[in-house]
Amino acid sequence: MDLLRNILLILHFVGLASLLGGFLVQIKPIIAGKGTIVAAMFHGALTQLVTGLLLVGIIEMGALGHIDNAKIGVKLLVLIVITVLVIVNRKKPSVSSLVLWAIGALTLANVAIAVLWK
């Protein structure tokens, strides 16, 4: 169970890197109003969602630690908003800068919640 949890955690971080990286590499186009939802953002959001849910399930089933349900609920809500923004806008040739800044800010907020919420 520990090995599976560690693999899922690594994949969760890969999803984060993909989502945030897809945003960060577009800062110039976003400022110019020409940003898009790149494939890395779409796949990163889905990877985060799936691995996060699996991590919670495995930890709960295997009693591998304590889960703060309030924290997980807030993180899930933030990630659902991110995922919806990504999916709704992914086929558009140009996405509102406000939407892209929101995705980047919410992604960083989720990292802050993970690290700072004790």
State the gist of this model.
With 118 residues, the protein is an all-alpha fold.
State the helical fraction: over 70%
Rg result: 15 Å
| SS content category | mainly alpha
Reported for the largest beta sheet, the result is: none
Mean pLDDT: 95
Report the count of strand segments: 0
Shape descriptor: elongated
Beta-strand residue fraction: under 5%
Q: What count of helical segments does DSSP give?
A: 5
- Give start-end ranges of low-pLDDT stretches: none
- Calculate the terminal CA-CA distance, rounded to whole Å: 24 Å
What's the helix-strand series? HHHHH
How would you describe this protein?
- This protein is mostly helical and 118 residues long.
- Helix content is 79%, strand content 0%.
- The radius of gyration is 15 Å and the shape is elongated.
- It starts with a helix and ends with a helix.
Which features characterize this protein?
118 residues, mainly alpha, elongated
Task: Walk me through the topology.
Layout: H1 2-24, H2 27-31, H3 39-62, H4 69-89, H5 97-116
Helix pairs in contact: 1-3, 1-5, 3-4, 4-5
